[in-house]
Amino acid sequence: SVAAPAIAAEPTVQWRLTSSFPKSLDTIYGAGETLAKRVSDITEGKFQIKVYAAGEIVPGLQALDAVQQGTVQLCHTAGYYYVGKNKAFAFDAALPFGLTSRQQAAWMYFGGGMQLMRDFYREFNVINFPGGNTGAQMGGWFRKEVKSLADVKGLKMRIPGIGGEVWARLGAVPQTLAGGDIYPALEKGTIDAAEWVGPYDDEKLGFYKVAKHYYYPGFWEPGPQLSFLVNAAEWAKLPKHFQAAFEAAAAEANITMQAEYDAKNPLALAKLLQNQVKLLRYPTDLLKAGQTAAFAIYEEEAAKNPAFKKIYTEWKKFRSLEHAWFNLAETQLESFMYSNKVK
Amino acid sequence: SVAAPAIAAEPTVQWRLTSSFPKSLDTIYGAGETLAKRVSDITEGKFQIKVYAAGEIVPGLQALDAVQQGTVQLCHTAGYYYVGKNKAFAFDAALPFGLTSRQQAAWMYFGGGMQLMRDFYREFNVINFPGGNTGAQMGGWFRKEVKSLADVKGLKMRIPGIGGEVWARLGAVPQTLAGGDIYPALEKGTIDAAEWVGPYDDEKLGFYKVAKHYYYPGFWEPGPQLSFLVNAAEWAKLPKHFQAAFEAAAAEANITMQAEYDAKNPLALAKLLQNQVKLLRYPTDLLKAGQTAAFAIYEEEAAKNPAFKKIYTEWKKFRSLEHAWFNLAETQLESFMYSNKVK
């Protein structure tokens, strides 16, 4: 018999992706795997991306640094994790009372946002691609009811980032706690409230057992976008058709991650409601004070941070146009459909 | 000198896509070109799709038949164009008071909708892929104000499909007119009202010059999805990695077409408002009667059409869960943001 020829089926490109997320946040984490599988299928395994959970290579919040330094070729993360470096990172994810999921996609793909963010990321040696969205998040779990803005004074709430800054201006004392530390702190009363994501992820952590008041909306995250951040030098080395495969797969992960949350959250919400969870809308005076505080933060930041100002000036115009349009057909139809019950 | 070797760079697969849309509907039509360009770039030109506008190969509303018969390999169309064959086609696009754009994507990708629709399309020798969405459409242009449901009686309105059936039950006389025939009919008063798409497409046709009342929301199209329909035998012949390239590119076209409308509609709306257009919300009694009529149509159809019933039973459960969830974080935040003005 004749020996089969030894054809080397070695992949020509092998990348490592570090995720900012643990596998337990399966919907967000899964966007990295969606990208990796699709790119491999398209290229017949010649372009392989191996996905690592937060902590396997570097901690979740060091994903950007790992890409910038070339430790890995890319990461899956949320821009607003890096507002400590520069508040302008938030435009790649979400800002309080900013853009919804669809508006963020419109801004990135057709509203000039992609170019602005790529200009910004360039100094970090990174090229960004939208890579998923959770949609508007819930407002979090409270041990006691918040009847008005006055009840916020002194409230210890787990909420990081610019959202935390907004709550601080309302009188709260924001806390930064990792996911696993929230439940015991809520249970003991070390904190009074905590925000996480939405019904699907919140239900798994069991917050409803120790804090029954589930508030909406999470006004600091109207449509938080996730991102794939790729090391610029590694990107430049890719053959053009691998770049094309990556871009298409990233866009697919962008829409399918949102769709997955949109399919899972309603089922989780129904389960939560079987556990005597009290659904409550934030009092209007709190929302108004929150929006005023958020917009003041943006103006103050723009006055002292040129990178923020450059993006903010365009983003603000875009937000204003989007909000005027979405207030018509989209929101009026939704408001009507969801409240008018037909047997 | 040595002659360069004659390497045949022939594409191995060449497909023709017939669009149901004219090039003038550039955003919708463009989804076909997005797909074609991306597939070609990924495969280094080895899988080419040539896009033809409505009428170049077959008329726009015969796109499905052309794919079914193998005249072309695929089309870009809207399922609800074929409700004359079976009302169940509407689930692949939109039904009055049904799913929004995000809910439709959730249903298709993660809610069981894809499998249900593929089972349905199988008898037409077709495999379907979501291929764009316009988002909630506007409610159309009216020569006179509609102050309540009573004003609908005898109203001649250009509105096709199930939306037209709903309006008929409200007392209107639905008309079917092609895009180019609407303006003169509105101008002469042959019709009293006409719906088209949304600000971006409506503005180009100039309806505001002959009918100043611009109503919202287009309750019969909360999130109309476009589809790529591929001949099943042609699909089966594709190499797996070409199938993968196609699927990723179709998903990309699905999100980017929506994003493009979401970026363009606000600008067009602002232009329209400079032309003394009166923006009006449909009276609540009209919306309520419309929803009741729509739901009655679905129940009646389910009682006599097994294909419709099979999909409707699942779709209805899904819609109910989605509407309960979207009524919280998403819609409450949007309603607040769009109405609370901060200087």
Instruction: Give Rg of chain A in angstroms.
Output: 21 Å
Mean pLDDT of chain A: 96
Range of helix content of chain A: 40-55%
Distance between the termini of chain A: 74 Å
General description of the model:
Chains A, B: It comes from Chitinimonas lacunae. Chains A, B: This is TRAP transporter substrate-binding protein. Chains A, B: Keywords: Signal. Chain A has helices at 26-42, 63-68, 101-110, 113-122, 161-169, 179-188, 199-205, 232-237, 240-273, 284-304, 306-326, 329-339, and strands at residues 13-19, 47-52, 74-77, 126-133, 140-142, 156-158, 173-175, 193-194, 213-216, 225-231, 278-281. The first copy, chain A, is built from twelve helices and eleven strands. Chain A has a six-stranded mixed beta sheet with strand order 7-6-8-5-9-11. Chain A has a five-stranded mixed beta sheet with strand order 2-1-3-10-4. In chain A, helix 1 (26-42) runs antiparallel to helix 9, helix 3 (101-110) crosses helix 4 and helix 4 packs antiparallel against helix 11. Chain A is 47% helix and 15% strand. Chain A is α/β, with parallel strands linked by helices and 343 residues long. In chain A, strand 6 (156-158), helix 5 (161-169) and strand 7 form a beta-alpha-beta unit. Chains A and B meet through helix 1, helix 3, helix 9, helix 10 and helix 11 of A and helix 1, helix 3, helix 9, helix 10 and helix 11 of B.
